[in-house]
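USER: If only I could read backbone structure tokens as easily as an amino acid sequence. It would mean a lot if you studied the pair and described how this chain folds. Here is the record:
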Amino acid sequence: MKKKKSWQMPNTYVILLGIALFMMVMTWLIPAGSFERITEAGRTKVVPDSFHYVSQQPQHLFDFLKAVPLGLVETAEIVFFVMIGGGTFKIFEDSGALNKAIQSIANKMEGREYLLIPTILFIFSLGGGTMGLAEETLVFVPLVLRLAKAVGYDKYVGLSMVSLGAAIGVYAGFMNPFSIGVAQVIAELPLYSGIGLRLVVLFIMWLVTSIYLIYYSKNHKIAENDLNISDVLDDDVIDLDLRDKALLLVFVGGFISIAVGVLLFDWFITELSAVFLLMGILGGLLSGLSFSRTADRFIAGAKEMIGPAMMIGLARSILVIMEDGQIIDTMIYFLTNVLKQLPASLAAVGMFFAQVFMNPFIPSSSGLAAVSMPIMVPIADHLGVTRQTAVLAFQFGEGFLDSVIPTSGVLMAQLAIAKIPWPEWFRFVWRLIVIWMIIGIFFLLIATAINYGPY
């Protein structure tokens, strides 16, 4: 008698295509509509109370198929950044210098491994809170995964230190110019005002997440016999020679130049890709490789990133279908009508959930602010909620689900790099996401009670 096959969760690509197909069907069922938009100071904003229905734009099967390459085209900058980063990392990985440096750090932290989690979480939370780290985290994932394994942590903890660390900063958004900055300008608030409360939120989120991961890691240590020579080196081979030091100098120097460029010169993905390309070339030459051998290793590393890169474009295809079907504004319109019926005491919480709902469909922080804040500000004024509280609700909702939903291209790429199926990640992280939500609601209720301002 044949055994009945147990049901298995579909491949992540299948899940994303399924969501895209569902949205294609929705373009036949949800009325098409649009808000009027104006451009002020180079930024496009929605005109409140300007929603109107337009002719239906149902998407067909061929439109669904076209959405995939269109999604890749729209995210091409990020896709190639991921592949270039993978090629560069492969060159440094094969040099052996990174392995030696990682094991050296692991040896120094022996007996104090628990400090690694809050430290790396804090570093990435600062990046998330000031620069809105997202795609930029992808190049750090392989490095931190190796460091985590070197001290006995599994891949869930390794990925979490990067992914959740940046998410904490984005959630609190204490000085993020792309989210809190744009939202406050639209709400006519002083730039970065109310930072005190957001810093408290950052600390609470960092503390709770650190405890969550430390507790998990104590019960899910990697057994010593699961560690192998390709991931962790023996103590007697970690002496760094001159070539190793030169390679590490280029590696660290590249990341420092990226940080300076982003903070001072408004660098974005294209400039970051250029820096990684230079790092890869220098890394190959310092490793003693010819230009041809350097290119071979670079291509080998880029190949390993094709899967994660494809997921970014595939996730984007969902948005392409919704935009072409013109159903996003209709969904936002109905959502804001519901918000107008809420009592003032719950309005901020309602705004938070509205932003959570909108975020997967408008993945850009500044784009979401430009669409939602011109609508949310009049609602806040009407319900007697301060504009600063409305901005806080936007900040908490913006990107809140990006750490768990499969439509987040960055998350899916991170999971592909870490070789973690999305269903397994969901089971690992959903409790923490619920805790984050409770923290957000708690602080929104406080903000409402104290008339969080200045106004």
